[in-house]
Amino acid sequence: MSDVAIRLARPSDAEALTSLALRAKASWGYDEEFMELCREELTLTPEKMNAWTIWVAECDGRLAGMIALNVGGEQAELEDFMVEPEFHGRGIGRALMSALFKECSTQRVRSVSLDADPNAEAIYRKFGFTRIGYYGDTLVITLLTAVSLPLGRDGRGLRLCYYGDTPVITLLTAVSLPPSITVAYYV
Hints:
Blueprint: E1 4-8, H1 14-26, H2 32-42, H3 46-51, E2 53-59, E3 62-72, E4 75-83, H4 92-106, E5 111-116, H5 121-126, E6 129-134, E7 141-145, E8 158-163, E9 166-171, E10 183-186
Parallel strand pairs: 4-5
Antiparallel strand pairs: 1-2, 2-3, 3-4, 5-7, 6-7, 8-9, 9-10
Helix pairs in contact: 1-2
């Protein structure tokens, strides 16, 4: 494998990263009509680039992938974990996720959540994420990391947090689950 360099995204990367995101999403076999519906969501705007920490991977002198993190206290949201299709299986995703987890550790993030394409669930499971359900009627899977999450401090084991504007009750202690697993329910 060629060397992979991870760096923070620059505003000048926005157009190229949007194209990369569209190619990566289309690699799951979606038709043009569906991809057009995804275009707005996958477009990196100046506002998003200012609000999120976005890393890019470069390999063979080209943009090969990206990942975005938005931290809010002990909670964080992951988005735009995309790898250029021709670079699949070359460690790009692992390098990007490593940068994200390092930042989460530095900022003392206790949980990371995301909505994922159903096709990507196995990829996120490789990195320790666990499916916690579906959001509405869409085929979107929400995952929450199980990486170094201590038990609740209040003794009740429940914690209220927000996923975007959606309140989420996080259960930190549960029968039949290891203490490091976090389970969340949409309410």
